[in-house]
Target: CcoQ/FixQ family Cbb3-type cytochrome c oxidase assembly chaperone
Amino acid sequence: MVSGIVTGALIVLFIAGWVWAWSPRRKADFDNAARMPLGEEGENNP
Model:
C-alpha cells in the first residue's frame, strides 16, 4: 500500500517537473542557459 502511494507521488512529481520544463514561459531562460557555454569569459549572460 505504501509503495503504491510513493510510486503515485513520484509519478505526479515527474509529470509536474516535465510540465514546468516544457512551459512556454521557461523557454527564454533555457535558451539563455544553453548559450552560456558559448559566451566569453567574464561575460554576464542575462
Remarks:
- Residues 38 and 45 are 10 Å apart (CA to CA).
- The radius of gyration is 17 Å.
